[in-house]
Amino acid sequence: MTKPRTLLALNWKMNKTPTEAKNWARELAGSFTRGTAELAVMAPAIDLPGLKETLPGGVDVGGQDISPHESGAYTGEISAAMLRDVGATYVVVGHSERREYHGETDALVAAKARQAQSGGLTPIVCVGEGLDVRERGEQVPYTLAQLRGSLEGVGENVVVAYEPVWAIGTGRTATADDAEELAVAIRDALRELYGDVADGLRVLYGGSVKPDNIASICAQPNVNGALVGGASLKVADVVGMNDALK
Ligand code: PGA
User: Fold this and answer.
1) Which of these is catalytic: 38, 104, 129, 163?
2) Which of 50, 172, 223, 240 satisfies CB 3.0 to 4.6 Å to 22 for a cystine?
3) Is 104 a catalytic residue?
4) CATH class of the domain comprising 7-28+35-228
């Protein structure tokens, strides 16, 4: 199995104004040399035009959420076409913070992922168990049930991010073996859905990834990159992670 290209996806969450985002991109342009990984910045939608203008060539951008609808009377929502129009390639859907604070269900996540694809974006579909599930040892069946629900009717142009909720923003990282255990299970489920194409799809790990642990996690045979929150905000950390993947 040839490994697909590693994706280093940065999830800024609700951080950085458009001005701060441009300054960050300028600083990155001054200190970044392309590695083997693809770099993509998932930023607040309002930051994307300035980022696109300022980031070094070849760095992709994406959104953190989209509407499950194409257009129309949905006050406050952002559509796939809007993100696409400002140069987005990706959009995160079903992040655990959306599931927890906004009550997003697997069915809604799947509707968003389908909408992303029909608008020309690649959805990064997030799944992962909470601490209670992990303590019961039920992380594999739980995460796979969430995955199947979140991919209902979704085509094969998809990235999956396994993010155990107990490892997000806590400094508690899953071990490389934990990440691989779920990545294997996820890839098997993707193979059931999409056939052999699944070997070329990217399965990311997320949860307290930083410069000193990214290489061992991404070296796992079924892990194809990382979705990074906290360590994505400082340019030095991003350069460190990018370099660690070279
Ligand atoms: P973290 O966040 O890297 O701060 O743990 C990851 C995420 O929520 O995508």
Assistant:
1) 163
2) 50
3) no
4) alpha beta
